[in-house]
Amino acid sequence: MANTIDNTLSLIHNADESTIRFISEWHNENEYIIANTSGSTGTPKKIKLLKSDMIASAKATCVFFNINSTSTLVSPLSA
Length: 79
Prior knowledge:
Elements: H1 2-10, H2 17-26, E1 32-36, E2 46-50, H3 51-65
Antiparallel strand pairs: 1-2
């Protein structure tokens, strides 16, 4: 698993600690990742997000915006 994570991180320029933590969690054996709610209506809570749901959402986003393997994307926000 360490090689997979290292290979993934090598593709990301200037990866911050939260990005590295997410990639490590994505590649673990669990079917979910742990995230925190925003806390806008109270104390932030930890929730489990299914990796399969995240993949389905990403695929739907790609279809909606016509994103494919030749698309170039820029993220002005921290991952």
